[in-house]
Specification:
The structure holds 2 protein chains of 2 kinds. By secondary structure, chain A is α/β, with parallel strands linked by helices. Chain A has 7 helices and 9 strands, in the order βββαββαβαααβαβαβ. Chain A has a 5-stranded parallel beta sheet, with helices on both faces. In chain A, strands 2-1-4-5 form a 4-stranded antiparallel beta sheet, with helices on one face. The radius of gyration of chain A is 18 Å and the shape is globular. The longest helix of chain B is centred in the last third of the chain and has 17 residues. The chains are: A alpha/beta, B alpha/beta. At the A-B interface, β1 and α2 of A face α7, β10, α9 and α10 of B.
Chain lengths: 243, 262
């Protein structure tokens, strides 16, 4: 299932990527969180980032999504058959474009927006940047489908999720990403606060996405989840802290 | 490279500086703004944010540099190279300007309805029934009850005045709105309502906006892009979440680390 024909080009390629934080307010302390990371991720596979906490797993996802800026290296993200964009020096406009069309990211925490209901938060990716190809009503129907699948009680759909439980918020986050499938999916512990039934649903969703050819890069705490969804493991490189 | 949807930016700013005597209040600012993008300009008071906003909106002649705007069907034009009449037309149609103090952006002595319709009337719309219909539609869109259409804004609360100011600006379907601290004088709950409304309207109308704010949470909520100003210069610019989560410049790190987490 993860057989890659020789012509297949990677969806995401990271070459010698390093990330340092320079803490200007703490005597310019340099904090190295990732060193010389390499990865090629192809469509239809699910790669698990393996390593102890603090090894830079979440950093890799944030670098790929353009939330962190790499200190050195290349992060090539495919946005068409022929073209890649290097996230390391991409313009804000092109990163926004890539996020809208080429990649989705499920973080561990939902960023709630005051007054906006759960169903509208989930529907939002379908309606962003003034794309009038879908009506708000249709987008809400689509959102309802995902909310139902993820067992969010209908009585909560029209409430802002600020007061929802951790597990409910995580499912809102998942619904919001899965509603608009994009070629690259970044998952940061997607089942961390879910009960067994919902975990099973999310496992099915991930497997289906992978079978559809989406390239998935994830952090999975739970080995039983990983066993069902992961097709390849990648170990984090060791950090040389004292140079 | 990815700039496939639109071929021209809506606004291009090149080397813009504003001097008061020998002192530069704004120095060498350059950026492109694309249709539908919301850009937040953040920084402390005195950093030059408001001067920059006024220079961008053709309200303060710069001492150097250019501001180009994409006129419908005519491409990028230097706004300071236009005639006064052209600039006025732009300010009444394709641009909006929302003031920090609503009283500066409203006519306090005429009705809410007349405030909302003023731009249309200046463009020659005269049909009373149609104007009133549009005024009611816009009052509803900014969540002001149409019953209040004949009331004067001085009877309105701060939040309502600010929403009225927004309706008054958006009625001509502008493509770019300038906002100077639009939420700063409001209670937190009123602020949330206004921000949610701005998010929705900018998305629905594919409206670009340049918002001056000192509030990083406001920037996070409504702006995709952010520029950080210190002493008149842009010390950092980028995607809002990237600048806030991975600030590079010492001043941005100071700003981000100074925010109180409730």
């Amino acid at each position: 299932m993860t057989l890659q024909s020789l012509e297949t080009k990677p969806t995401l390629q990271m070459k010698n990527v390093s990330k340092q934080f320079i803490l200007h307010l703490q005597h310019s302390t340099v904090l190295t969180v990732l060193q010389n990371f390499n990865l090629s991720l192809y469509q239809g596979e699910c790669v698990r980032l393996c390593g102890p906490s603090g090894a830079g797993k979440s950093t890799v996802l944030k670098l790929a999504y353009g939330n962190y800026r790499a200190s050195s290296g290349e992060i090539l993200l495919r946005h068409s058959k022929e073209q890649c964009v290097d996230m390391v020096n991409a313009s804000a406009r092109s990163v926004l474009n890539l996020r809208s069309h080429s990649m989705a990211y499920v973080s561990q925490f939902l960023r709630v927006i005051p007054r906006v209901s759960a169903i509208d938060i989930v529907a939002e990716p379908l309606l962003e940047n003034g794309m009038a190809s879908i009506t708000p009503e249709h987008a809400r129907e689509e959102a309802a489908h995902w909310l139902k699948l993820l067992r969010i009680p209908e009585s909560l759909w029209h409430l802002p999720p600020a007061t929802f439980s951790g597990g409910e918020q995580q499912r809102i986050n998942l619904a919001r990403s899965f509603i608009k499938p994009r070629p690259l999916l970044l998952l940061d512990e997607p089942t961390a606060s879910l009960d067994p039934a919902n975990t099973e649903t999310v496992v099915d969703m991930i497997v289906q996405a992978r079978n559809k050819g989406i390239a998935i890069l994830g952090i999975f705490h739970d080995d039983s989840v990983a066993n069902e969804v992961v097709s390849r493991n990648v170990s984090m490189p060791p950090l040389r802290t004292h140079l | 490279m990815m700039d496939t949807d639109a071929t021209l930016p809506l606004m291009r700013v090149a080397g813009l500086s504003c001097a008061y005597g020998a002192r530069n209040a704004v120095y060498d600012i350059s950026f492109d703004l694309w249709p539908g993008e919301v850009l937040a300009i953040v920084g402390e008071s005195g950093s030059g944010k408001t001067t920059l906003l006024n220079a961008l909106a053709a309200r303060h002649e710069p001492s150097a540099g250019h501001v180009f705007f994409d006129l419908r069907n005519h491409g990028l034009h230097d706004v300071y190279g236009m005639s006064e009449a052209q600039r006025l037309m732009l300010a009444r149609t394709d641009w909006g300007f929302v003031h920090q103090n609503a009283a500066d952006g409203l006519r306090m002595n005429v009705s809410a309805g007349a405030n909302v319709c003023e731009r249309l009337m200046a463009l020659g719309h005269r049909h009373y029934g149609k104007l009133r219909e549009q005024a009611i539609d816009w009052l509803e869109r900014v969540e002001i009850h149409p019953d209040r259409i004949d009331d004067r804004p001085h009877t309105f609360s701060g939040g309502m005045r600010q929403r009225l100011q927004i309706a008054r600006n958006l009625i001509t379907q502008p493509r770019l709105v300038f906002m100077d601290e639009p939420t700063s004088g409001l209670d937190v709950s009123v602020q949330a309502k206004l921000l949610d409304m701005l998010r929705t309207l900018t998305r629905q109308m594919n409206l670009a906006a340049i918002i001056v704010t000192h509030d990083l949470a406001v920037a996070r909520l409504i702006a995709q892009r952010m520029m950080v100003m210190q002493n008149g210069q842009a010390v950092e610019a980028g995607l809002t979440d990237q600048v806030l989560d991975d600030p590079q410049h010492p001043y941005t790190q100071l700003l981000v680390s100074s925010v109180l987490q409730p």
